């Protein structure tokens, strides 16, 4: 038997207004104006795809006699392949993702919005979507979207999240697809391990590096104290400007390492900045997930 108080709490959550994150993600998903999520190849399904000339070996029952009556040949009516895929999301909710320069939203907010908007678009096509690190296996339906919104909107349940996060490939079904969103500024070794393991299990996917504009420009000069968002790392300098070129070189090296990792594993990689519109990033993510199946 479910705990009555917990059951009532869940019911009130579902009956109340949509979470702000879900409402924002739904609006973002609507702006891309995408149509039905088809596989664009013949197979089992309900939607008509194309007519093709009949060839030797086609069963008589597969011939569309009404279409064939309008020409001298026989034509087969093909349906579009519509088998649902499983897509796992990983949204970094470490302390580093809470960084935001003046006038910008935290990286974690943008990453969560993009992830949920992607889930909405995939859900419209009947795909199963799940969330790593939250015990949310891939499922379809509006209830699953509410679960995703609740998990992403609540943030990391840990009292003190780590400075940097990394995905775990073992939480993803074999031969599924995946979307990872993070700043990827921490130790890259666990990320490499996750992508290599995913590739070994037939998991393809998309890696999106979400960065604040300050992290790209490094607009610091003079006396500056740099601290990690979790407070575990700190560095003070009197000449921050002298660190700019070294920092930018290190950032470029990190981007190139992630790009090469994705090329090795068959994944796709892009960088998204929080001061740019999310629509273009969402279109790229959706298209990339379509291309990698």
Describe this entry's structure for a reader:
This protein is an alpha/beta fold. It has two domains: 19-35 and 84-291, 3-Layer(aba) Sandwich (Rossmann fold); 48-79, no CATH class. It contains nine helices and ten strands. α4 (107-124) links the parallel β3 and β4 (128-131). α2 packs across α4, α2 (20-32) packs across α9 and α6 packs parallel to α8. Mean pLDDT is 81; it is low at 35-48.
Please summarize what this structure is.
This protein has 293 residues and is α/β, with parallel strands linked by helices.
Summarize this structure as a short list of keywords or feature phrases.
DUF58 domain-containing protein, alpha/beta, 10 strands, DUF58, 2 domains, Rossmann fold, two-stranded antiparallel sheet, 293 residues, 6-stranded mixed β-sheet, single chain
